[in-house]
Design brief:
little secondary structure; elongated
């Protein structure tokens, strides 16, 4: 398995194996992210309003609802 963040450009060679090469993409947004109205495969089909938070919890589940203090790992 290889993991990259979204700021990294990556290139792989063509898959010449007899088996399928699978890809799993995870995208994280800040808890206060708002829909800007731009077309995206991530928002296609979701009922969203421009400048409102991403509240479709089936599509955009909350995975962390707290904050961490810098450098200490303590929850605030």
């Amino acid at each position: 398995m290889v993991a990259h963040n979204s700021g990294l450009a990556s290139l792989t060679l063509p898959n010449r194996a007899a088996t399928t090469r699978w890809t799993y993409v995870v995208t994280y947004f800040p808890g206060d992210a708002r829909y800007v109205g731009a077309p995206s495969a991530l928002t296609e089909g979701a009922v969203l309003r421009v400048d409102e938070p991403l509240r479709d919890l089936d599509r955009f589940p909350v995975v962390f609802d707290g904050a961490w203090t810098a450098g200490r790992g303590d929850r605030v």
